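Sample 3 of the quickstart, ligand adenosine monophosphate:
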Amino acid sequence: MPRRIIERNRWLRSDGKPNFKDRICAKPPELEAIADKEIPLLSMQATVINACEVMSSLGTRLVPITDPERRLLGIITGMDLVDYFGGGIKYAIVLKHYGGKLYPALSASLREIANTKPLAVDVKSRLHDLLNLMISYGVGALPVVDNNAVIGIITEGSLIKYLSSKVVGVKVSEVMSTSVISLSYSNTLGVAMKLMINLGIRRLPITKNGDVIGIVTWRDIIDLFGKHKIFNMLKEFTFDEVHLLPVTEVMNTNIATIGPDEDIGIAAAKMSELGVDSLLVIKDNNIIGIITERDILYGVVAR
Ligand code: AMP
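Result:
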């Protein structure tokens, strides 16, 4: 089982609070400087395909949903969309309201699937409070609000960049997940999406005869829709067809790797250089772990 499921509390002290390192608490930083402000806001009337297009073109994993005054009404994440496309219980909406048909389901308004009770962080909060929220609730991205108006989002990736000078002195092997969940190449996209939602992981290495031949991530799935690739892959334009796509048609074959003894600072630099948010950890040609932005962030602030 992945750490996210079985080790959710490993970053917490016995009193249930994250165990922050002094170096993080020492300096009250500005969330304003960390927030990514180049993000679009969507309205509740925007559609599922709009959300995919925005996530694909801007590479963002969370889009705030606001009213015209930028007041936060909800959020939509990449994993909400994977859930809706068949990975989880939101798929019931596709079946019940849209008969499993692709175009009507993609034209659904975000009102139907958005999380309408989102966590958010006030821009005047301290970094400590933000990390507390992220770790306690296990979320990797949050909207940032100022006087009730959304001004941006903060993700694990933006925090790693901000903290990059402090990302030293910890080895990859100390923070990686060691039980890597992978999927055989003969599986379908439907199986991959269900596994991701059920286990709360956003990526799955794909194996063939014991070798990793690719990796399928939440982003590859969103890009199918957001970059309109899906429209050239189907005949009937139903979600049944989407689920039956071989996972090999969706996976990414650029596999980014790192050694277990490297510093997590090197891992962070490699992720940002390659534009990925995870690395497979390899020793003697074997996969011995996986490290994601979350593992690096927690390794810096809460080990
Ligand atoms: P993510 O949401 O993918 O950034 O990952 C959250 C947590 O799950 C991190 O601790 C990862 O190391 C772990 N994780 C992600 N993908 C996998 C996987 N395929 N197998 C095992 N652990 C994973």
